[in-house]
Amino acid sequence: MNKEVPLCQNILKIYEELDPKLLSLVNDTQKSALADGALPRKVKLLIAMVLDAEHGASDGVQSLAREAIKAGATKEEITEALRVAQYICGVGCVYTAARALKEVFGSGKDTGRKEPF
Q: Does residue 82 fall inside a structural domain?
């Protein structure tokens, strides 16, 4: 299992006081869901990222994209996952992801890349 700080820890820190059991449950579920298994952690993070994009959660997309990169994902894998999301869910998820990925990859100026970020 990955021993990194859970992705949601900062935003859910309030629950340390309000409901520590709920915070523990969320963290345990996250660890279980994103651990290497039949699917590698990188793939699970990409799946979670596109689900957040579909739900309009750009902060989640940003956090999950960064974690996916740490797990070995490339820009190309991230954008390919978003192509699948766009096919299934529509273009809205692409706009959500663009807001998030601009923070992850920068504006795209002078990169020589064709991607919009």
A: yes
